Amino acid sequence: MAIQWKGVMPAVTTKFTDDDKLDLKNFEVNIQAQLEAGVSGIILGGTLGEASTLTDDEKGELVRATVDMVKKEVPVIINIAEQTTRKAIETAHKAEKDGAEGLMVLPPMRYKATDRETVAYFSEIAKNTSLPIMIYNNPVDYKIEVTLDMFEELLKLNNIRAVKESTRDVANVTRLINRFGERLKILCGVDPLAFESLLAGADGWVAGLVDAFPRETVAIYKLAKAGRIGEALEIYRWFNPLLDLDLSPQLVQNIKLAEVATGIGTENVRAPRLPLVGEERQRVLQVIEDSLKTRPALPDYKNL
């Protein structure tokens, strides 16, 4: 399936059983909710997917299970976050064999690579896979920025197609469009900046709170792209306190609590993460509870 690199692509959470195994039953409940809402792809093994805690075998199992669940309705994309170029290439090969149809690739982990090293890292991965690639550009969390000049080099490789734009500088959407036009698809990767990014011309949204609120997320995207800005903005303003939960170091715990509240997930996380407790837990639960009380009715966004 050719990936269009547009629309809403949830960075899904990984579900765990009480005894810390993959919980594919509850995982499928969430995947089906995403498909019913009208998402454009499923992204596995990102930060929200607790990728750093998953074994290689678990990642493979997740890819194969998700491919089976979506039944070609949308593409399945797996995140690559590795410390060495060799391991990243091995991971890409395995993902392709397991049925993934695209890759989201972070820069080298732990080592703060130079611009030249970062370009070489992404380039070697791209040269060693036939899968299309979305570069994850998040200098706030990963301390490496992929600049426009670096993208100029990377886009010489045909299978580098998109960027998950998480610089938190909305103006960067315009800079990328001015420089690369349609050659580079842009997906916002920061929930509280998604509406602004879409209006600036972003093609899609790699979303987090979509894991708990898939219909509202897709509705905002569809309405914004259809020019029904006022309707999209009304939902987005309601959504904003929830979207801010994506900016916390405990974003996984936050979003999993929201999934529990909407009936499409569980709270289980994998150590060293622990479920929220005390005042912080009550604060997050209050945000979720307040939002559910005023949850908006949605228009027939699917037919836009």
Automatic annotation (TrEMBL):
Entry binding sites for pyruvate: 206
Keywords attached to this entry: Lyase
GO biological process, one term: N-acetylneuraminate catabolic process
Leader peptide range in chain numbering: none
GO function terms (MF aspect): N-acetylneuraminate lyase activity
Alphabetical list of SUPFAM superfamilies matching this protein: Aldolase (SSF51569)
SMART domains with a match to the protein in the record: DHDPS
Pfam families, alphabetized: DHDPS
Record's GO cellular component terms: cytosol
Annotated catalytic residues: 136 (proton donor/acceptor), 164 (schiff-base intermediate with substrate)
Family: Belongs to the DapA family.
Protein name: Dihydrodipicolinate synthase family protein
Originating species: Sinomicrobium weinanense
